[in-house]
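Hey,
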Amino acid sequence: MAAAAGVSAITVSRALNTPDLLSKATLRRVLTAVKQLGYVPNLTAGALSSRRSRMVVAIVPTIASPMYAETLQSFTSTLSAAGYNVVLGLGGFDDRNEEQLVTTLLGRQPDGMLLVGAVHSAAARRRLAQAGIPIAEIWGDGSPDGDLQVGFSHVGAGEAVATHLMGRGYERFGIISSDDSRALERLEGFRAALGRRGHDIAFQRLVAPPSTIMEGRRSLDGLLRELPRGGAVFCSSDLLAAGLVIEARVRGLEVPRDLAVCGFGDLEIGRALEPALTTVSVDGAEMGQMAARCLIARLSGDPAPQHITVPVEIIQRATS
């Protein structure tokens, strides 16, 4: 390539790595030769020499959920603007799958990693600690041995929903929840807040993650057998809640007179639903952006906060 451009090998290296050091004319000759020869830089060799891969791994349970998709988009965009590429891994909702992905992707020598939640297997924790790279955890409320954490209390979110529904005058309650650790924490908070006021949960259904609208629709039969009319249901996602509202309307039930519903996530479908869905709002895009900024700061040698709590807000709409 140096011969094609009529320059030295060191000049080619500067053009690819420190182009500001060259004149515009010289840089143009080298880039023209790069294009003509179809040269692709060997990033692995570059990472070995610089000890930086400019790659960050993001391991999430699923991209089927709009909540995670929104977070990933802002996370990726923020890192891309800083010159980093994001490699995505789907760990599902199984700690063993996540552990295997952590091991495999650490072998790619990433500069940093993003994980969802603060609950990981002991083996995954050990490997992450040994890797010596910054680790950002999102969508959880942190753990004592965490590195960079951006999230909120799922127990607190569940408690807030229970307090809100009781404040609206409801006295009979049900819950439809995804059977994953974070959703179960919300269930725990919901149940505890009800118990402090002398209430219990008349109907509970756990569904395999990820949550879907159809699982929400399928939940209505069991709910109607166990929860008297006029009760309120907390769904662990807006998708489940939307399915429940759709099926209730199909069956001729009035929402919220016959059945009140609260979701989680403040997704677009909840805002478009008729009646519009009461829900819990968490800014997933902001969470992804803050996690990316924390990683960038640490990778640049700058301080970054170890724990950031994002706000959780009950959005009162027409279903409760």
